Amino acid sequence: MTRKEINNCEGLISIDYIVGISIFIISIFFLFNVLTSMFIPFESTSDELKAMSNRVSTTLVESQSGLITNALSPNIIDPAKVSELNESLNDPSKFDDKMAELGLYSTETKYKLNISLNYINGNIYTVGSNPILIGGPLPDDYTNVAKTSRIVYLPSDSRMLMLEVKVWL
């Protein structure tokens, strides 16, 4: 049996090999970061907006400080409170106070709000030719909007209506 002599370079990890593998791993990591940022360019805030929209709608239809007449009967709204909300959302001097009351006003983030009262088919609920509630500005076409719809009962008109709350940045 003959024994092969081992050369000095065989079986050893050279510094060139370590540097090469390190550059390869770093380039794969960099490529992964660049590709994911290309496909997801902006941070989505839809979960935050959905939570805000849901909180406002819950406050309006289940809280005594909202639109209901009695805390024991949620989703039955008072027309006088609805018209008061419509007035405060469409009056620029009262808008910020109403936003703070609904929990949407902060110094860091300025949320926008639109609340409307619709028939179940989606048309705006009107008394005569005047909408009873369509408060706040309308969102742009390309804005990330969170919308929460709640079924409410208006006893003065004996109708089931849909309260839509839209929140966006």
Short account of what is shown:
The protein has 169 residues and is an alpha+beta fold. It is built from 4 helices and 6 strands.
- How many structural domains in the coordinates? 1
User: Count of DSSP E strands?
Assistant: 6
The largest pleated sheet is described as: 4 strands, antiparallel
Amount of helix: 25-40%
Radius of gyration: 30 Å
Number of helix segments? 4
What would the average pLDDT be, to the nearest integer? Answer: 83
Question: Order of strands in the sheet with the most strands?
Answer: 4-1-6-5
Distance between the termini: 81 Å
- Strand and helix order: HHHHEEEEEE
* Structure classification: alpha+beta
Can you offer a commentary on this structure?
- The protein is of the alpha+beta class and 169 residues long.
- The protein has one domain (46-168).
- 38% of the residues lie in helices and 20% in strands.
- The chain contains four helices and six strands; from the N terminus they run H-H-H-H-E-E-E-E-E-E.
- The strands form two sheets. It has a four-stranded antiparallel beta sheet with strand order 4-1-6-5. A two-stranded antiparallel ribbon has the order 2-3.
